[in-house]
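Honest question from a wet-lab person: if I give you the sequences of every part of a complex, can you actually get the arrangement of the whole thing, not just the pieces? Trying it with mine:
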Amino acid sequence: METILQLTINGLLLGGIYSLIAIGLTLIFGVVRIINFAQGEFLMIGMFATFWIFSLLKIDPYLALFIFTPLLFLLGMGTERVIIKPIQNAPPIAQIFSTFGLSIVLQNGALMLWKSDYRSLETSYSNAVISWAGLMINVPRLVAFSVAVGIVIFLYLFLQRTYLGKAMSAVAQDRDAAQLMGVDISKVYMLAFGLGIGLEGLAGALIMPIYATYPTVGFTFGLIAFVVVVLGGLGNMIGAFLGGLVIGLVESFSGFYISPELNTAIYFLIFVLVLIIRPQGLMGAVGAQEMGLK
Amino acid sequence: MKNGNGSNLRWVILLAIAAILLVYPLIVRNPFYVHLFIMVFFYAFLAVGWNIVGGFAGQLSLGHTVFYGIGAYSSTLLFIHLGVSPWLGMFAGGILASLTSVVIGVPCFRLHGPFFAMSTLALGEVFRILATYWRDLTQGTMGISIPVKFGWKNFIFEEKAVFYYVILAFTVVALGISHWIHRSRFGSNLVALREDEEAAESLGINVPRNKLWAMMISAFLVALGGTFSAQYILFIDPDAEFSVGLSLMIAIFPILGGIGTVWGPVIGAVVLVPLQEFLRAWLGSSLHGLHLFIYGGLLIIAVTFLPRGILDWVQALGRKALPFLFPTPALEKPAHPRPDHFLAWSWLGQKGSSDGPILEVSDLGKNFGGLAAIRQVSFEVRRGEIVGLIGPNGAGKTTLFNVISGFYPPDGGAVLYHGEAISSLHSAYRICRRGMGRTFQLVKPFQNISVLENVMTGAFLRGKTQAAARDDSLEILELVGLYELKSTLGKSLTIADRKRLELARALATRPDLLLLDEIMAGLTPKETDEAIQLIRKVRDRGITVLVIEHVMQAVMQLSDRIVILHHGEKIGEGPPREVAADEKVIKAYLGEEYVIT
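Yes, you can. This is the full assembly:
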């Protein structure tokens, strides 16, 4: 019984991290209608930046996030202008392969700069644990989980209460109608893309005390983010959060009862099954038809 | 005979290249330069294989290393454990890869665009992990070394030159297959389903089966590449055989070179592989990742600015600069364009013309959720009639067409065509093959192929050879007045010409019943008149026509009988004159107050 509780806690905490990484991807998909295959690489950039600022300037990851979230927001907006905007109305092949190209560029750029070494940082709290009733709760993971919950609430309020947020929701639902209502969709795309990338800066800083970084770390986490987003329903914020928790639990339990080596294989199979059986995901996807999901 | 000289010159150049390639390893003894060419052919071979499903059929797979890995592991394990020659093991691997491709294809082909790509990418990772995990079979990350025993039987050669000739032969065979597909009915089907699956089905093309065939051929070839690489390197491990990077590379070469063309994948490999090999030779591992960094950048630039690839760009430049080398593909007009010749062909009446109605719709119903789009609609169409189907917006006309032509299954009632129930066929392509052609209200021309090729996708259903399909198509183009535009791309047509093209494509399947969905909407009065003449001409040759039309004047002139739908129900039927005076019709169209009592 205690094992099951512990596995559940581990799974939920892990799931929080996955949600955090996936929310940016789902936001970009929902608003800009682009599947950003380079999403994981921006997380990688956030992680490396956090690593270097810690090793060189001894700036704590939890402080670094206040630097890198806005920086990645700007980087995201720039990327949207240079790479995404020109292919906004291009055929699918261009939309898939230009972000794929970007992912290859960033991944191999990192490889050339920093080699394929694994780099991790040790903070005073990296291994801090709260023990309670025989259960162990890792502090950095709890922090990441809490921030993920906070981000979901924040984004929910942002989309419901502010003009910009409402404009984004409107564009997500029907870009033509939104345009007719006077929404500057080009600006909305840029801001949404920036926001989605900025969230990876935040996630990168938050998980640096837990995970090592290396040039292909973005590929690993990026694929998990896709699984989470598809499971929750593309473009669906709450769906991404719940999807993250589900994948976290699956990983925690299958790692214990089957084999940790097969974790990835198991949730990829889930991913393919979900795509085939219920392509709109747990919570329903925005514009599933339009993107060729049905 | 300017063209003749141009094509002669092209042959001379091709033969010269072939001759150079044949003697190359005999003259060049530097192993690096032989290796370089082996790599170019090797990647070209994989790229040509990928292009069959990724290019012709437009299914952007990013998981082709699954097949590559299966090929490498099958032949290697058979060789090591059972002593089977890799020449045989190669085919075992190819067949196993083809079977696997069916298992992957059946579920994944339901997904489109980026989702298909993502699911294949994920499956590639699943295979890599399984190969790592299944140590008893694969020795996991340790990998498997193939014992060096030189000899033809073992597919292991001391001389690099032999590998050179082997992979050159592989590539030539793959190009031959690709060339054949490109010119065949199969290739035409693949292009059609790539451009628009629904339109392809309406032309009698079995979309899932064609996709699977393309995938199987592609998987088979790529698996052979896996065996070749295993024999060349004599070592395999999961990370190399199921590498994501390789999956990407074999997609990048065709995309850069010219996706969906015969030579594009080769051009891509010829341009990029030397770059990669030279970088590797010069920089060693000091700048590991540089070649992929450059590929990624080129990929972004190419899909943004040269979406049709280098080949297309070079050809366009070449036509300007060296017109004698790059002749504009000109189609000779048939000696006597005989538009009526096509219609005079005797495909009609082949089906033992019984006297019963050609189409009977009885008590047909279709619901979407709680909404009854059509309710208990019954009517019949007799041979040689033109029947008009009218009704206000949302009356259910197009839904009715979609049920009759097999795009939606009915929720009740039956459709009898030539006296046989056809809604149990459950597929649009089968219904088309039986002789029912249709057009779409929102026209679906195949955008990226020429008008002639558009019509040929339909004509291939009956004329099995390319020449037959082409002759049919040219005659039909003359008939509908699109002959002069035969080389124009589908996407460049005006709306009126798109509608003509829809009609031409449907006619090319040689139907005996044509369903025309608002073929005159948006046409000028003159164009409308021409369309009426054309439909009459078609009918006079014995093709029965059912038209949905909003242009009242046209439908009144054209139809022998009119069926009126309103809120999904049939509210009347009769000759145009009677219908025009019918109270219910006026009410439905104009409202209560216009009825003169």
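Two things worth pointing out. The CA atoms of residues 513 and 586 of chain B lie 29 Å apart. The mean pLDDT of chain B is 87.
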